[in-house]
Automatic annotation (TrEMBL):
It comes from Nannocystis radixulma. It comes from the Bacteria. InterPro entries: LRR_dom_sf (IPR032675). This is Uncharacterized protein.
Length: 450
């Protein structure tokens, strides 16, 4: 593992640990932290696995009493060993000292450079919270139903008398949401957060009042501000609660319209909802839906990604889409299995959808005339970072024209593969394409011929 990545994961794990611990304890925990590392020595009689080493000098590096104190930078310097890192590093908040949160770090004595062993968002760091006191009940899946003093074991009787300043203003449902927000930023976590916000609360686990729900959505927006947009997506069925777009839908960045032929009215309702005014991506798959709702929607004016799959585009819809200001900031456009003559593709590329385009995917219809439309627009080609012409009806002469197109120098990916698994490109043409100087840094994806 690179030192920069090891440092980044420590930063992320520390931030998550503080956020999680604050949902358990009453104490104010400063963002500034100090680490107190410890390591139990490895038993020499126990065999080591492959790609694993222990360092004999570690026996003197980790005094138990008192533990050494480290800044985050010093901890990285101590534990990163030329690409090798510990199998695991358990992090737990234990105190506040001198205006800094003290975090104990229990370190595995085994070090490895095998990526599979430390695979995961924060690994080798594992965040933990010490057990709650016996007078605080636990409830699945929420955990402790109330917060408690961090060092309650020092004087349990006195700790029971300490009041939580958030009591009455923060519900158990809100505490659970905050615990979810401290989890790794993956799609499963986002689904749980969305479910916590949109599902009707149990009778004994309710929001403090309707205003707390809106406060919780704002809190979630702030906490997930840096989460990947692809994680924050939903389907058209998830977007609607009953027949309304709930305020929690503000958290979505991409909505996937599935089986739209059965729910075409939902597209109209969704595009009119103020709760989707930050929507960045829209994917419509199949069905007779009126795409003019996308073109004319006032709340949806920040689209960056549009995918149309197996969706008929009528003349009036085409006319509205290619001049829509909603598509002026489009970065990604996929047109898949749609009826798209070359002259219509030219309208898309010359209209507002083509102004900022960086990624273009055409599936199932691109032919010689479509390629000619593309090659006639050098300004667009110079911006493109991804060009995918899947299941294209292109001859070898058209492939060689791509090899001659020097304006494609910024492409990261050129994908000419076929879903059928066969290739229309000969080995000689593939070699010419890959050898083209403008593709020296481009990932050229082709199927093997034959």
């Amino acid at each position: 593992m690179e030192r920069e990545e090891f440092t980044r994961r420590l930063t992320v794990a520390t931030r998550r640990l503080l956020a999680l611990t604050r949902t358990y304890v009453i104490d104010a925990l400063p963002d500034a932290v100090t680490f107190a590392p410890a390591m139990q020595p490895w038993e020499d009689l126990v065999p080591l696995a492959a790609n694993t080493v222990v360092f004999a000098e570690d026996r003197g590096r980790f005094p138990e009493a008192p533990r050494r104190r480290c800044s985050p930078e010093e901890l990285v310097a101590l534990l990163w060993r030329d690409g090798r890192v510990p199998y695991w590093i358990d992090l737990v908040v234990v105190a506040v000292e001198g205006g800094r949160t003290l975090i104990e770090a229990e370190v595995s004595p085994r070090f490895t450079d095998d990526p599979a062993i430390v695979d995961g968002e924060d690994r080798p760091y594992l965040i933990k919270v010490r057990n709650n006191p016996p007078w605080v009940a636990r409830r699945l899946p929420f955990g402790p139903v109330a917060r408690f003093p961090l060092n309650w074991r020092d004087d349990p009787a006195a700790a029971q008398l300490v009041a939580d300043p958030e009591a009455g203003s923060v519900s158990l449902r809100r505490l659970h949401l905050r615990r979810l927000l401290a989890a790794p930023g993956v799609r499963e976590t986002f689904s749980e957060i969305l479910d916590r916000l949109r599902s009707p609360p149990a009778s004994d686990v309710v929001w403090r009042d309707p205003a707390e729900l809106l406060e919780a959505i704002e809190e979630a927006e702030r906490a997930m501000g840096e989460w990947d947009d692809a994680i924050r997506e939903g389907s058209i069925d998830a977007v609607f609660f009953g027949e309304q777009v709930g305020p929690w839908a503000r958290l979505l960045r991409r909505v996937v319209m599935v089986r739209a032929e059965q729910r075409g009215w939902m597209l109209r309702e969704a595009m009119q909802s103020p709760h989707l005014h930050e929507l960045l991506g829209l994917e419509i798959r199949g069905g007779e839906v009126d795409l003019r709702h996308v073109a004319h929607s006032r709340p949806v004016q920040k689209l960056r990604r549009l995918v149309l799959h197996d969706t008929p585009i009528a003349d009036d819809e085409q006319a509205a889409l290619v001049i829509s200001k909603n598509l002026a900031g489009l970065v990604h456009l996929t047109l898949s299995r749609v009826h798209m003559p070359a002259v219509r593709l030219a309208e898309w590329l010359d209209g507002t959808p083509g102004r900022s385009l960086r990624e273009l995917v055409l599936v199932g219809f691109a032919g010689e005339e479509h390629l000619a439309v593309l090659l006639a627009r050098p300004a667009l080609l110079g911006r493109l970072e991804l060009l995918r012409l899947q299941d294209a009806a292109l001859g070898e002469a058209q492939v060689l024209r791509l090899a001659e197109c020097r304006t494609l120098a910024n492409l990261r990916v050129l994908d000419l593969r076929s879903s059928a698994g066969s290739s229309y490109i000969s080995g000689d043409a593939a070699a010419v394409l890959r050898a083209a100087p403008q593709f020296a840094r481009t990932q050229v994806l082709l199927q093997k011929s034959g």
